[in-house]
Amino acid sequence: MSLQLPKRFRRAAYGVALGSSLLLLGACSAEDKAQADRWAMPANSPGTEQAVYIADLWKWSWVAALATGIVVWALIFYASWRYRRRSESDVPVQTRYNLPLEIFYTIAPIMMVIVFFYWTVVTQDTVLEEVDDPDHTIEVVGQQWSWTFNYSSDRDVTGGQVPYTSGTGSNIPTLVLPVDQIVEFKLSSPDVIHSFWIPGFLMKMDIIPGQVGEERNSFQVTPTEEGTFKGKCTELCGVSHSRMLFNVEVVSLAEYESYLQDLEAQGFVADEPLLGGEDARTQAGLDAALANEGGAE
Ligand SMILES: [Cu+2]
């Protein structure tokens, strides 16, 4: 028995078969496999207790989207096969209105949006929960175009002064965090809106100039894995935005404290946290401009 399919249908079927085999063939490297395992989230994620909730939201959103996709694809293929044109002479039934169906496909997407929205809000509330007394508070300054990290709550480790580290466009700073400790970030900007993002923590938050003290945007993380992460500014903030990078090292508490003592030994301590403006160096152009003004370090 030979299958008599309309020419157009056969061509479409070949197209689908070719396309999906190309997709499958293209996706078999080890890196692609690892990426698929974490549902395309960044390497090293989720690196904190809070990020686990975000990874779960992402994963189940994919499951819901794929389940919806399977139903939709099945209906499309079924309808195009079942109601195909069978001969040159007869035209398939042309249905113009079907009220129940139209009500269904208006309500179904609204229901889906409500479900996604509900779980997004639940996850957001969980991730933004803050305890009153975090183990460490780090005052983060995003300035055009680098970062200053003030380890404000750890003055006791360094004889009463605030250890800090400050980067430049050509010297990427490192943020060191203790593993399994609750760390609060308080975000300040002396100039424009920046956004503090550690992709491996699946979390970013805007830094709004003008917010001071307790008004500042803040969030807490509990890193769960020692290791290295990348950080960046994710708000287009000016000409050198792309240079606003930093590294993150998650280490043991003992290593964290000895790092702070190293900062002290190198003179990177201040009486008060450096919150930008005149204190955090503005990086325009970058070191060259400072040198022109005779202000280079
Ligand atoms: Cu920025």
Automatic annotation (TrEMBL):
Query: Any transmembrane segments, and where?
Result: 60-81, 102-121
Catalytic activity as recorded in UniProt: 4 Fe(II)-[cytochrome c] + O2 + 8 H(+)(in) = 4 Fe(III)-[cytochrome c] + 2 H2O + 4 H(+)(out)
Please give one Pfam family short name.
COX2
All residue ranges annotated as the Cytochrome oxidase subunit II copper A binding domain in the record: 133-262
- CDD domains this protein is in? CuRO_HCO_II_like_5
Give GO terms for biological process: ATP synthesis coupled electron transport
GO MF annotation terms: copper ion binding; cytochrome-c oxidase activity; oxidoreductase activity
Q: Which GO terms describe its cellular component?
A: membrane
Q: What is its EC number?
A: 7.1.1.9
Signal peptide residues on this chain, from the entry's feature table: 1-30
The record describes the protein's role as: Subunits I and II form the functional core of the enzyme complex. Electrons originating in cytochrome c are transferred via heme a and Cu(A) to the binuclear center formed by heme a3 and Cu(B).
The UniProt similarity line reads: Belongs to the cytochrome c oxidase subunit 2 family.
The entry's protein name is cytochrome-c oxidase
Question: Organism, per UniProt?
Answer: Nocardioides donggukensis
